[in-house]
Amino acid sequence: MKTVRAGARPKGETPSTSVPTDASADALLAQVTSVDPWEAKLMATGILPGLEALPTVLLVLEKHTLRVVFANPAAEALLALSRRSLSQMTWNDVFTNGDVLASTMVELIANHFQTTRLDLVLERTAQEPLHTHAIVAAPEAAPDFVIVELIENEQKLKNEREERIIDQALMNKQLIRNLAHEIKNPLGGIRGAAQLLEFELEQRELREYTQVIIKESDRLQTLVDRLLEPHRHPYIATDVNIHEVCERVRSVVLAEFPQGLSIERDYDVSLPDFRGDKEQLIQALLNIVRNGAEALREQIARGDARIVLRTRVARKITIAKRLHKLALELHVIDNGPGIPADIRDRIFYPLVSGREGGSGLGLTLAQSFVQRHDGLIECESRPGRTDFRILLPLG
């Protein structure tokens, strides 16, 4: 009796090379990868990796049925539904008033538009309505799909505020450089002319006027030098421990304000070291903490002035339009009177100060130093609590 091993082919038998003629490429890909045919088709477009990494809510729909083909982690978190559950649903299953946006999608596809935007309220069964800004796109790279991006209004406002800070910093940088050079050259001429004039003056009382010119020229020269400070210092990267930075700044400020001020620590000791310019970060933090202490004059006089240095890890956070898996959050919180409302949106502008006698440069320089580390400083303020939040990418 002739036996054949499992998986073996009887001698003389040729392997079959036929392929089922009714199997489409999409179906075969789905069979091999064990995924839905539409998801396989979406994967073949190559756009999925980019969508997966975005921090905003993203849903990819099949354009004819509006069935959910893909949902990123942010969508799963917001909708409290897994990707598997969402893949069994259409847009109108996800939102009870989904027709509001569904008609927009149909119009987008019919008229061959690529994107449209609108603000709307999306309702969900047994959940709070979602106040959102929706961006609907029909990408050329994936013609069978519609991509819906949902940005919660609060997140939208945060993104817009962050963009303003970044744009403002870039404009400041260019303005400062141009202005500094325009000021420095004539300033040197004014000072030199005043010195020559002083030598020619025989009356001592008249020399007082030339001394005023010389001293004011020197003051302006110092101001210009401070404006250019971030651009003059080379970026020297070393391993930085943020708590060493905090302790250095804490000791300096407490030496300047020995009575009436407490600087409390609230550290996450698990934070790793990172690459950065330690001296620049010390200067940035010192400017913020010193600025806060200066604003606490009344509280210091009463003996209840308080600043908190708080460090935390932030996960999957967007800084300057880039998503970072890990970032460092450093909060500087004080119990002062708060930043005046009329300058709250301009505190990082050069020469803007809410304090009499302030130069208005400390926060501008701090923002410049932090942005050299691909980071950002944000601020929220109300009477009794001002919170400066420094964000720095880790890794």
What's the SSE blueprint?
Blueprint: H1 25-33, H2 37-45, H3 48-53, E1 57-62, E2 68-71, H4 73-79, H5 83-86, H6 91-94, H7 99-110, E3 115-122, E4 130-137, E5 145-152, H8 153-200, H9 204-227, H10 229-232, E6 238-240, H11 242-256, E7 261-266, E8 274-276, H12 278-294, H13 297-302, E9 305-319, E10 322-334, H14 362-371, E11 376-382, E12 385-393
Parallel strand pairs: 7-9
Antiparallel strand pairs: 1-2, 1-5, 3-4, 4-5, 6-8, 9-10, 10-12, 11-12
Helix pairs in contact: 1-2, 8-9, 11-12, 12-14
Order of helices and strands: HHHEEHHHHEEEHHHEHEEHHEEHEE
Number of helices: 14
Give unreliable regions as ranges.
1-23, 26-33
CATH class category label of the largest domain: Alpha Beta
Percent of residues in helices: 40-55%
List the domain count as a whole number: 2
What is the β-strand count? Answer: 12
Rg result: 31 Å
Globally, the shape reads: elongated
Kindly report how far apart the N and C termini lie: 68 Å
- Main sheet attributes: strand count, strand direction, barrel closure: 5 strands, antiparallel
Region (Disordered): 1-22
EC number: 2.7.13.3
Enzyme class: transferase
Organism: Pandoraea pneumonica
